[in-house]
Amino acid sequence: MIIDPKHYLDDIRRIATDAGRRILDIYERREREFAVEQKDDRSPLTEADRRSHELIVARLAALTPDIPVLSEESSAVDYAARATWTRFWLVDPLDGTKEFIKRNGEFTVNIALIEAGKPALGVVHVPVRAETYFAAHGEGAALQRGTDEPMQIRARRFNGDRPIVVASRSHAGAETEAFLKNLGPHEAVSMGSSIKLCLVAEGKADVYPRLGPTMEWDTAAAQCVVEQAGGTVTDPQRRPLSYNKADLHNPWFIVSGAGDYDWIRHLPVSNI
């Protein structure tokens, strides 16, 4: 079956926005309390994760019953089964659970369509800001704020001056500090969730080094946005991140804007 990813963009944007509303119903509770549990990997899980997951999976099943769904909250699909998938939805129903718990608003809903191991469509919705980044292969990338008309976004070309570096608010470590030291004078912006990749996509930052653990559902949707905006998301060997691996962990990666500046050379030597 031949599918044009852009055909699904409007539907997926609506699904992500509706999931965001379900998250905000919990986030904005007057008593400001919600249950927080620990998953097997000791990362937090909230009622909001579950409610968003349930909505997205049900809506995707109705929209595309023949396309399987892999969500962070249902990730225990045996690789023997997944290996047969040439196309599937990859979902993080609430990316940035730690940011949700901290109530800083820096969390997202991520939905990507993966084809032959590559993100062909990506939607990243920021519920608190009512902003949605979206892209489909060959269609460019866009940002919609509230009910405004979507506007095209482009990653900017680094001019060799003082770079703007976006870093994880909750997961920065010694390797990232070493990268920044190697980089020299720079401006740093801290942010949570997949918003970091989207800041590079819309030209508000030059580079985002992620030198720590992430999972495939953390990056797929935003990678599509970055790539369609003219940027790249590559591992230390300069290869684009790929999806539906036997191990769903991502390698370390660098998100960069347009142009050919070699950010990899600033990585700690032992990590290249």
Keywords:
272 residues; alpha+beta; three-stranded antiparallel sheet; 26% strand
Description:
The structure is a single chain. By secondary structure, the protein is of the alpha+beta class. The chain has helices at 9-27, 47-63, 79-82, 97-102, 174-183, 195-201, 216-228, and strands at residues 36-38, 44-46, 69-71, 87-95, 108-115, 118-126, 131-136, 141-145, 151-153, 164-168, 187-191, 207-210, 232-234, 253-256. A 7-stranded mixed beta sheet has the order 3-4-5-6-7-8-9, sandwiched between helices. It has a 3-stranded antiparallel beta sheet with strand order 12-14-13, covered by helices on one side. A hairpin with a 2-residue loop joins β5 and β6. α1 (9-27) packs antiparallel against α2 (47-63) and α6 runs parallel beside α7. The radius of gyration is 18 Å and the shape is globular. The N and C termini lie far apart (40 Å). Mean pLDDT is 91; it is low at 40-44.
